[in-house]
Amino acid sequence: MTNYYQHHIFFCLNQRENGAACCMDKGAEAAFDHMKARVKQLNLNGEGKVRVNRAGCFDRCGEGPLLVVYPQAIWYTFIDVDDIDEIIESHLINGKVVERLVV
């Protein structure tokens, strides 16, 4: 079976009600918006390429913010859009995992 997307990325965009640590409180939505825009700008989106989606809680809140890249199942944390740009350049374009951001 062939994968529809080369890379399918999911961002945890969960907001916890009890005030506990969560990805949304750590800039996940801005990072998601940035990756979607950059992927589109670089013409990486579409069938056979890259898809970026929202996701609910990954139940790894203490490690967040998080995104996961499938089908490789590589879990990344990130601090800012510079980290997102590094993931795009290294992993999505050049096929090299950004080891320093892997959780």
Detailed description of the structure:
- This protein is of the alpha+beta class and 103 residues long.
- Helices cover 26% and strands 20% of the residues.
- Strands 2-1-3-4 form a 4-stranded mixed sheet, with helices on one face.
- Helix 1 packs across helix 2 (81-93).
- The longest helix is centred in the middle third of the chain and has 14 residues, at 28-41.
Percentage of residues assigned to helices: 25-40%
Q: Supply the number of helical segments.
A: 2
How many strands appear in the DSSP assignment? Answer: 4
Categorize the overall geometry: globular
Brief overview, please?
The protein has 103 residues and is of the alpha+beta class.
Question: How is this fold's topology laid out?
Answer:
Elements: E1 7-12, H1 28-41, E2 50-55, E3 66-70, E4 74-77, H2 81-93
Features of this protein?
103 residues, alpha+beta, Glutaredoxin, single chain
